[in-house]
Every structure is written in C-alpha cells, then in structure tokens.
Amino acid sequence: MNEMTLACRHLGRFFKASVTFNLEPIEFILKALNSEYKEGLEDFRPQWFSQSPYYYLEEFLETNKIKSFIYKDEDKFYEKERMYWMGYCMQYWTNKTTLNGKDISKLWGVDGIEQVYSHYKIYHTVDPLYVLEDSIEINNINLDFEKILK
After folding, report:
1. What whole-number distance in Å separates Cα of residue 140 and Cα of residue 131?
2. Is the pLDDT of residue 92 over 90?
3. How many angstroms separate the CA atoms of 43 and 100, rounded?
4. Are 43 and 53 in contact (CB under 8 A)?
5. Structure pTM?
6. Which tens digit of pLDDT belongs to each residue from 96-117?
7. Cα(first)–Cα(last) distance of the chain, in Å?
8. Which of 13, 18, 68, 89 is the most exposed place for a label (fewest CB within 10 A)?
C-alpha cells in the first residue's frame, strides 16, 4: 500500500474515532483539517502512521475543545462509516490536488463541509474527485477544478 492510500485510511480512522468520543461532526472536521495531525499526514511523516487514531484523538482533544454530540446507539455504525468516508475523502483531495486541510477548511467552511457530510448517501459510492468537483460547484467556491489537480 502506498503512503497516499495509507494517509487516507489514517485520516478516515481518525474521523471515525470521533464518533466514539461523541464529538459534534462538523466542528470536529473543521478543526481536524487544521490540526498538526492532518499536517503530518499531508507531509507523510512516518510517526503519524505509527499510533492508533485514538492516541492522536486524545492528544488532539487536549488542545481542541469540541462540542459533544449525542448519537443514537442504532446510528453509531452508520455515523462511523460516514465519518471514515469524510476523513478518507478529505485526505484524498489533499493527495490529488494542491489543496491542504487548512485550504479545505477555509474555503468550504461550515456550510460546505455540512453539504458534503449531509450528502454522504449520494456521494460515498463515487470517486472523491467527483465529490470535490461537485462540491466546488454547489458551494460556489472560487476554484478552477482543473487548475487545482496535480
């Protein structure tokens, strides 16, 4: 497995773990995109791949206050899958474009991240680059999709 795929999986597991900690998803995503952990994955620093996502999440929570969110027990499996997909997708965008986590957080903001999150049922079966292209258009983000591709 190459390091880009490994980074996608790690950020996916990091996002998925947030459901176990009952963290509000949109706030968590925005702060995680700006975190030292995300920067480490973007640079493919080996130390970020060596620990459990729970280890990094506990460390992340020491410096980031995230509102609690109540997931119904019957929804937790689904929500973990959705958050895994969100993390995987966000890292995939970073890997395949000139965008980093901070760019995504700033450009998409709460409304844009909420749009991607709320359309999981539609998007999760398609290529993440299609999701990116569609999200740029839907959210009127001033980016030329072709120019941000590597």
Report:
1. 14
2. yes
3. 10
4. no
5. 0.94
6. 999 999 999 999 999 999 999 9
7. 20
8. 68
